[in-house]
Amino acid sequence: MLITDLLERNARLYATDIALVEVNPSEERDSATTWREASLIEAAHVGSPYRRELTWREFDRKANQFANLLLSRGIKKGTKVAILLMNSLEWLPLYFGILKAGLIAVPLNFRYSGEEIKYCLELADVEVLVFGVEFVERMDTIQDDLPQVKTMLFVGENGPAYTEDCCKLMHFCSTSAPPVALQEDDYAAIYFSSGTTGFPKAILHRHRALMCSCLTEQNHHGQTKDDVFLCIPPLYHTGAKMHWFGSLLSGGRAVLLRGVKPEWILRTVTEEKCTIVWLLVPWAQDILDAIESKQINLNEHLLSQWRLMHIGAQPVPPSLIRRWKQVFPHHQYDTNYGLSESIGPGCVHLGMENIHKVGAIGKAGHLWETRIVNPQGEPVPQGEIGELAVKGPGVMDCYYKNPEATAEILKGDWLYTGDMARMDEDGFIYLVDRKKDVVISGGENIYPVQIEDALRKFDKLKDVAVIGLPDPRLGEIVAAIVEVKSGVACTEEEIHEFCKELPRYRRPKKIIFDKVPRNPTGKIEKPLLRKKYCPEGLVEVQIEG
């Protein structure tokens, strides 16, 4: 079975049930109804443009229409079709339409500059691009330099002259499934690595990898038809979409929230009766800070149905989860580890029953195997640090048009993650750091994540990032970039005093007060910090994944 089969099954079994909801908190509400009043009534009473919804039947029909539109243009199986949209009701039907037509979906990061869009379109050999109104200015600057892009489709009204109206064209296309035979070994999608060091790599996946995500996610979190999943992160990334695949498999409803403010998140959980919420570390911290500072009153929200909060995309400070459980003691908690190269989250999985192991990323996920190896590829003894490697049906086919980079990360059936890790006596895996983020000071390997976890316990700090800065005597020294909580005073001396609990060699030699930059999936953008604080000409460490 393929994920396109799951959509068609849901359209048959749950035709009139709501599949997707889009919530836009930034849109003005009816002036006669405060949000507090609206949160206590049925969500259906909250009108557009604040809220839009789509049934499973409508979802499938729109996907079929887009597939038939593409095929009507003579586009051949295996052609790459890029999506450049903000999260919206249109996003997933277009994605599934591409898959149903036997084409390769190429989701693009909505934060890309014009030059980055151009680079990715060229790298992936994209021939069709569908984009929205938010990207017109960027596309205007590059549209004359994209000879390989033969068709540009616009989602919205009054598109540029060089585009065609996607929704109007779809209106005239059949709502029946296209006559395209798909196999699990067919190519399905190209995702891009985080690109935190410049231009990203193109990651090619087959249909079987997408189905692997469905099975792994639903096995880990037990989604049922009655669950409502709140999806906040961008759909172009494997993380958000692959967690939603659990809803696809179970036929449950999902809510696409366009905004990350704490009050918006809790309001949407209340109004939409969400039961599962996937957060990034900064969002969870912001929610707790807003509650503790009395900016949010939990008594104004209906949250009893919320059963699971899970986090991924980055190491999770145990102190954060302890704080969360104090505020939400009834919540189940979980964390998943993964890479775009392993079709997103789940190749390593903590498990809701293992909250006593908070700090670990877990054990091999459903359908996956793991091992920790030395530079020669040999397993290291339990407790020792090595590189985490994973194996399973979700491993990428290759880096598209980049055999050298492919050979560096794929060793037979094993995907080498670039993450340094150790395993405890119970078989749980703990991330130590990115392989190439390790700071070598005076010949000693220092792992920034360990220092970051310690500093996050300091209650005056909102966020922290640790990098190595060049030093003529030691090679590198440890520098901590610290982001102080709003309205809180904190001195360098206080931080040095707090760090005395660390072994001397791990203590930061330099404290820098600054905002900690994170990409849309929550990862710290350390190359930006190195570029900002390292001397000109220093070669940047390369980080992918």
Helix content: 25-40%
**Coarse shape:** globular
Averaging pLDDT over every residue, what do you get? 89
Q: Specify Rg, calculated over alpha carbons.
A: 23 Å
What is the CA–CA distance across the termini?
Answer: 28 Å
Number of helices: 16
Strand content: 25-35%
Under CATH, the topology of the domain at 439-533 can be stated as GMP Synthetase, Chain A, domain 3
Widest beta sheet: strand line-up? 2-1-11-10-12-13-14-15-16
CATH superfamily placement of the domain at 439-533? ANL, C-terminal domain
Runs in which pLDDT lies below 50 for 5 or more consecutive residues are: 30-47, 536-545
Instruction: Tell me the major beta sheet.
Output: 9 strands, mixed
Tell me what you see in this structure.
- The protein has a domain at 439-533: ANL, C-terminal domain (GMP Synthetase, Chain A, domain 3).
- The protein contains 16 helices and 27 strands.
- Helix 15 (492-498) links the parallel strand 26 (475-484) and strand 27 (510-513).
- It is globular, with a radius of gyration of 23 Å.
- Residues 30-47 and 536-545 have low confidence and may be disordered.
Question: What would you say about this model in short?
Answer:
It is built from 16 helices and 27 strands. With 545 residues, the protein is of the alpha/beta class. A nine-stranded mixed sheet has the order 2-1-11-10-12-13-14-15-16, sandwiched between helices.
